[in-house]
Amino acid sequence: MEPSCGGLPGLEATRPHVKPKATCSAAAPLEERRFHVLVGVTGSVAALKLPLLVSRLLDIPGLEVAVVTTERAKHFYSPQDVPVTLYSDADEWELWKCRSDPVLHIDLRRWADLMLVAPLDANTLGKVASGICDNLLTCVIRAWDRSKPLLFCPAMNTAMWEHPITEQQVGQLKAFGYVEVPCVAKKLVCGDQGTAFRKSRSWRSLAFGTSAPWWGTQVPRRVREAWELARP
User: Fold this and answer.
1) Which one, 53, 89, 222, 228, has the greatest CB density within 10 A?
2) Residue 71: C-alpha distances to residues 7, 40, 55, 66, 90 (Å)
3) Who contacts 229 (Cβ-Cβ below 8 Å, separation ≥6)?
4) pLDDT reported for residue 191
5) pLDDT for 150-181, tens place per residue?
6) Among all residues, which ones are annotated catalytic?
7) Does the pTM of the predicted model rise above 0.85?
């Protein structure tokens, strides 16, 4: 899979801070192409770490990052602390006025080479598992090109995590071809002690295998590491 090129299609006129870029040609040097990572953030307290996560991602050479946020996630961070373009539900509706206007969740789906949903709260986990798409983030996920990697990072209270429905919903996302970045054991903000969720095989072989065409970029591994370093 070749990294995508250019800004979000059709958004240059409506979002002045998204600068248009030249279209890539097959002869363009690889180092000039940017690998586009779309971060989805939901209403878990772990969203506090969004600014740090974005900062870690921007440390990876060749990456361009954008963020899609749910409304509840905004409670946990300040947009001024996120140094990349941030999209929310209002942008979806403000951009579309008539039939020729861009559809933001489709443009984001086309733009991104990889999606990282971190954190994924219990509410959005249930929505995605059931196919519900009632906000910008879940619409992007519902329209996602499953030939591209989508990583999800569950984050919720231990009691919610241990509910039987959680295992079913995580399993459903895996059945869609999405890749789980497992939870870790820690003391939660509410004071509870979380339980570890460990994998017996290496993340690389479990998640993708060595034959995945985009694995050679090492971007998926480094994106996962960025979340592991940033999460609380």
Assistant:
1) 53
2) 24, 12, 21, 16, 9
3) 52, 56
4) 56
5) 999 999 888 899 999 999 999 999 999 999 98
6) 190
7) no
**Distance from C-alpha of 152 to C-alpha of 167, rounded to nearest angstrom:** 14
**Parallel, antiparallel, or unpaired for β 179-180 and 63-69?**
unpaired
Task: Report the largest interatomic distance among the alpha carbons of the chain, rounded to a whole angstrom.
Answer: 55
d(CA 50, CA 41): 8
Domains and CATH numbers, the chain: 37-230 (3.40.50.1950)
Look at the chain and count its residues.
232
Q: Encoding tokens for residue 19?
A: 């600068």
φ/ψ of 124, rounded to 5, equals -70, -35
- Yes or no: say if 138 and 124 are a contact pair by the CB < 8 Å rule: yes
Tell me the DSSP string of 43-74. Answer: SSGGGGGHHHHHHHHHTSTTEEEEEEE-TGGG
